[in-house]
Amino acid sequence: MQDKPKGAEIRQDFIDFFIEHGHTFVPSSSLVPGGDATLLFTNAGMVQFKDVFLGTDQRPYTRAVNAQKCLRVSGKHNDLDQVGRDNTHHTFFEMLGNWSFGDYYKKEAITWTWQLLTEVWKLPKDRLWAAYFKDELDEIPEDREAAEIWLEQPGFNPDHLLPFGRKDNFWEMADTGPCGPDAEIHFDRGPEFCNMADVPGHVCKVNGDCERFLEIWNNVFIQYNRLSPTELIPLEKTHVDTGMGFERIVSILQDVPSNYKTDLFMPLIQRVQELTGQTDAEREANLTPYRVIADHARATAFLIADGVVPGNIGRNYVCRMLVRRAARFGMKLDLHEPFMAKVARVVIDEYGEFYSELKRNEKTILDNLTREEKQFQKTVKAGLEHLDILLDELEKKGSQVLDGGEAFELYATHGLPLEITRDIAQEQGLDVDTVGFQKAMEAHRLASGAGKEFGEMGGEDVEVYTRLVNELREAHQLDNTGVTYTPYEPIREPLEILALIKDGQPVQTVEPGDTVEVLLPKTWFYVESGGQVSDMGQIVSADGKDWTIKVTALRKPAAGVIVHVGVVVKGQPAVGDLAFAQVDEDRRTQIMRNHTAMHLLHAALHEVLGKHAQQAGSLVAPDRLRFDFNHPQPMTREEILAVEAWVNKTILANYPLHIVQKPLQEAIEEGAMALFGEKYAAEVRTITIGDQAKLSYELCGGTHVDETGDICLFLITYEGSIAAGVRRIEAVTGWQAYQLARERMNILDEVDRFLGTAPNELVQKVHSSTDSLASAEKEIEKLRTQIVASAFDEKLQETEEINGVRVLKTILPDADMDALREMTDKFRQKYESGVALLASEQDGKPILIAAVTEDLVKRGLNAGSLVKQVAVVVGGGGGGRPTLAQAGGKDTSKLAEALDQVAVYIRENLK
Ligand SMILES: [Zn+2]
Ligand SMILES: [Zn+2]
């Protein structure tokens, strides 16, 4: 180890050694795993061979060798927090591996491992230790075969062969599937490398977790297929899968105490040092930022080369986060200008020979890094200051964990990724609620929906617009603030189309039917804000080219950018064409009526209900307005009518509106209504209604009518609750109010015609109709009773004799219990001695009544027990006096059958 081999040479030694032994060199696959949706990034050498082991893919070779690019930013093997803080953790790393697909097996694999390490790389044999598999549960056979092969290696110290159990020496791809024992080789760096000597209970040995014994190479022997936790079956074909951490073997072969001291990292670290101008001693005192920048420069250069540019979600987010994290650590070294491209330049020089994608994508890599750093610089200062305040407050409260929602706000408004917030919090001994962050992010995504700034920014969206606007600024087609926005002043002159965006990409021209976003140097289309919806309208050719784009929405996809979203309905608009931007002015007028009416409604609620009726939400659309406010109980009808009347009186008084820009503080002192939680600039737009006495005074950016009379008419259509203590009113104005009134009058006209009354007699007529309906119902009831009674008179004739007793048993369909009782009286009046059992049906269920005259009670009959015996048949029961008893039941269909029990009862009980 006198002449230190270069990292690139070590990589090539490995590949050449296995090519000599019949292996095919297979280039590294992309960091983005092909066809594996479960994996964010390629994180091991075997990812591209997984399907071969699973038997679903075949290769033209049975022996392969590779050096694979890998990336890990989270998971059990790596924690981003540790990267840069120790000697061994990286986000990006390389894995060297040799592979046998049903070809050679343990003997060759172990022999070659030994040969490469001891003969080619000449590692001292007495420093090498081997580990093989021995099941601690004694269920899977011990790998004696591997153990014997280790012992056969020339110069191998038999005392350096150690058995280990499932955790260390049995490899599984997943809960089921290919698996097998593995053989590891460890290197003893010497007792001085033990970094856990002070840890109580530490035993300095292989797998003892300290930095003295390093696992350098793992040979996995795939020989089983796991079907279930307890079922292993031998594979027909056995495979070899090996992995050697490249950075680690280089650190050993270059005899340096840290991966970062190898020539894989030192050129990058030295480049950073040139930029900072620090001495070697200063560098050693600030190692963490140097390491983070070197690590992240490698990771981001390789990511961008594989097409993963900085962005908002998924893999793109990881790239963005790594650039920003490096930039933040750069600040610790006083690097405040973009520097990542300068470091990445060295990555390309050092690695581009072997990984040619770095050279091919050089410009993309450097441009993306610089653009991302610049974008980050715009917001990072405010973000870090805000975070400082939050962490101070946290410490004052004696709390340990920063709220996830606040961490998300830092990202959404200041571009501070969670990982940076967590870095900073942890530097102060605090933590961040990452679950809360994810929840807030998800909630934001859902709440913002389609067409909103953040929700649609997915992927590279924001990049496209930012780049576009920067280019337009450089060409002086846009000024520094971006698109000029004048929603209060119509623009009647022709405007040049600066850009057309289709499917997220700028295009030169679009066709009929295309959905397109149109960027103009200025616009007077209102963009949804403060509850007022966006304008609609059209953009038409102003230079005789005869094309039309129907505008259905507006959005602000990035700072300074407003685009008109629409569909080409005619012709072929192109970039550079002159156009008229035509807002649908009828629609806008209706929106303005509703907005001004809403200010009046707010004032009226204060007038009628009190000052507590503060705005809690609003919607101003062309067809209606919606106003949510604080009030503890439902409004009475009188209150609703009073509010409506107040607004209409103010409309009729035709007060002018005064719209004035003034300092926020002044407006607040004058009593303008501002919304809690709303962010206002230092200069605000104020809307005043009324002259001497200000009827309404609000801060508002919306569009309004000139005079209240323009609203025409205001009608409340709904009042209800939306949450505890919050009420909602919906209302219409202008033409919609007229239409609503007309519709209601039409209904009244129709009713009048039908009833033959004049409108002012209608209520009287409805009252009297209701009264006569009620008396008619009473009359019907009376008649029904009479009908039942006369029916009974006939039935009274139809008695029979059972054992000499006169018996009346009959069903009277419409009679209720009172009617039945009345009829038993009639029976007694007509016959001195006898038994009556009368049945009917009420609400779908049978009712029964039984009557027995006194003389028969003395002879052993009893109305109570009779009615019980009968009721049993219809699934019921009952009781009463010996002379009169009643019962209910369930099953009316058995009523006739039940009456047969009367004869049975009399025969059994009569004395
Ligand atoms: Zn140790
Ligand atoms: Zn307003």
What does this structure look like?
This protein has 27 helices and 34 strands. The chain has 911 residues and is α+β, with helices and mostly antiparallel strands. Strands 1, 2, 3, 4, 5, 6, 7, 8 and 9 form a 9-stranded mixed β-sheet that branches. Helix 7 packs antiparallel against helix 11 and helix 13 crosses helix 14. The longest helix has 36 residues. The chain starts with 6 loop residues before the first helix and ends with a helix. It binds zinc ion (2 copies). One zinc ion (ZN) binds next to helix 18.
- Overall pLDDT: 88
The N- and C-terminal alpha carbons lie at a distance of: 128 Å
- Helical content band: 25-40%
Strand fraction:
15-25%
- Shape category: flat
Summed up:
By secondary structure, the protein is of the alpha+beta class.
Key words describing this protein structure:
34 strands, 911 residues, alpha+beta, 27 helices, 39% helix, eight-stranded antiparallel β-sheet
Helix-strand blueprint:
Elements: H1 7-20, E1 24-25, H2 50-54, E2 63-71, E3 92-101, H3 106-120, E4 128-133, H4 144-152, E5 161-164, H5 166-169, E6 170-172, E7 177-188, E8 213-228, E9 231-245, H6 246-253, H7 266-276, H8 280-285, H9 287-305, H10 314-332, H11 340-351, H12 356-360, H13 362-397, E10 401-402, H14 404-414, H15 418-427, E11 431-432, H16 434-448, H17 461-474, E12 484-485, E13 495-496, E14 499-502, E15 505-507, E16 515-519, E17 522-523, E18 537-541, E19 548-555, E20 563-570, E21 578-583, H18 585-608, E22 615-620, E23 625-630, H19 637-652, E24 657-663, H20 664-669, E25 683-689, E26 696-699, E27 714-723, E28 726-733, H21 734-755, H22 762-795, E29 800-802, E30 805-811, H23 817-830, E31 835-842, E32 845-852, H24 854-858, H25 863-873, E33 877-880, E34 884-888, H26 895-899, H27 901-909
Parallel strand pairs: 1-2, 4-5, 10-11, 12-17, 30-31
Antiparallel strand pairs: 2-3, 3-9, 4-7, 6-7, 7-8, 8-9, 13-21, 14-15, 14-16, 16-20, 18-19, 18-21, 19-20, 22-23, 23-28, 24-25, 25-26, 27-28, 29-30, 31-32, 32-34, 33-34
Helix pairs in contact: 3-4, 7-9, 7-11, 9-10, 9-11, 9-13, 10-13, 11-13, 13-14, 14-16, 18-19
The structure holds zinc ion (2 copies).
